[in-house]
Amino acid sequence: KIDALKVISRTSVMEYRGTSKNMRTIGKELNASHIMEGGIQRAGDRVRINVQLIDAATDEHVWAETYDRALTVEEIFNVQSDIARAITTAMRAELSPEEAADIAEAPTDDLVAYESYLQGRLIIKNGGAPVLHRLNAAVEHFQDAATRDPNFIEPWAALVESYSDLFWFHGDASGPAAAMRIIAHMERLVGQGHYLTERATGIYLYHGRRKLREAIPHLEAAIALRPNDARSNAYLGFIERRLGDFDTANTLLMASIQIDPMFMPAVGTLAQNYLWHEDWQAFDNHMKIRLLTGYGDELRAQFELARLYSMAAPDNNVMMRMMHENPTFNTGIVYPRRYWIFEGRVEKIYPIYDAMISNAEADLSDMNDRGLTGAITRARLAKVLIASAIHARGLGDDSRFKAMVDRISALGWEDEPKTGGGEEPWKYSELNIMLFALRGDGVSARKAARDLETALDASEDRLAVAEIYSHLAQGMVLLKDVDAVARYVEKGARVSPAYNPIAAIMKLPDYAAIKDDPKIMALVQKYAPDFAAAETSFSKHIAPEYFYGPETGAK
Fold this sequence. Notes:
Layout: H1 10-13, H2 23-30, E1 34-43, E2 46-55, E3 60-70, H3 73-90, H4 97-104, H5 111-125, H6 131-148, H7 153-170, H8 174-190, H9 195-208, H10 212-225, H11 230-243, H12 246-259, H13 264-276, H14 280-294, H15 298-312, H16 318-325, H17 346-369, H18 375-394, H19 398-410, H20 430-438, H21 442-458, H22 462-478, H23 482-495, H24 503-506, H25 518-527, H26 531-540, H27 545-548
Antiparallel strand pairs: 1-2, 2-3
């Protein structure tokens, strides 16, 4: 709330609760010059709060104070304001009249509502459970906080973000409508010029309506009103990345991480950007330690690192090995066609796919039980079934191949090709084309692909379009249509040069039938001249013990 001070978010700082790390280490990891620590003692209706400000570089005390107050809502938030003023003075920072009024205003007069809101934020932040489960649990806390105090603006903003995310990640069509109603309520509470209203509107337009460019001015307004808001910076960075401006995206994402070093969506996205551009030094300097410490779940962090490295170096087999060793872990991985490993070793590959199918079915069942639509969750299940079918066909397992195709058909996918919702109804409709190709229906697959191109070429989401063109190329590999493969690889590369268009098709078992065609050989030379070099680069920049422990190394 004070522009002159850059304050690390509470969720990042809570990672160090009870830690044995010294102040210098914590300051370095958080990129913080000073650290505030303290303790709270409660006795009946009284509370004592001990606070001290420490110079992280020298470990010297800059300021300390003890507050004895009544345990009331008014006094708790008064103490927060007093501490903010004292630290501003100790840091020789200036406090504007507007900022003074802002920190003096209590967000709510209901401590239970405040605690419920904080619990919701903590649930979303913590790792372990899949995104769907965390969002649903957090929504309950935000709803409780907003119901207890309808004038408490923060849980309303959190609900907009959560409902929009339920649409973005799982395709719940009711989410955007609920978010829009809440934004109208927020505007009645604080007006359109409040940073939370602007941020909520930007997130709703982006994650709830896929209107990337319309979201930008709202997020820019939120940043202008509150420069130290990590989420506004991060979401604007996400959008710029999808529009193809990686330099601006990286600047915004880094700004977000400097405010909240453990805001993992920003950390993971920036890490992915660095790896796509093979900026290993930036990755090592900024991302690796945060990925390993920020998830609060070591296995999940290891999976995320494996996923990112697999995207940068497609020939590595770390991801599949981890999935084999942890078959019940819900990784949320929706790109299994990238990992054609253990070829011919049915005893290894099938349990992985079966576990992924089970996880996707569980998520879809959870959506149905809650009365939520789940088009994107259903699409994820379809993707895993498609990948399993492709691999079964490559292994010559006709029985499993037919079973997988029948299960895809049972989803009713071909009857509902426009499943993405929002303003881009074509989203995920490429799965229809993959299903046609698996059935050997080249006429229908090619017609659907041509129909889809018009919508893709008009989209502003360059990253999503590049990925879909990659899927179209994969479908054409299944049909052995070299000209169509070349067409879609080239179109994907033009849309987003950061997205490697050739890697996925090279992993398909059907690729062997077309790899010696001059057109395919030219594509490989153009976009992937030396996968061995990528593998070597990967090996130099990964410590095997991150995945398998210091003694066993990479298996």
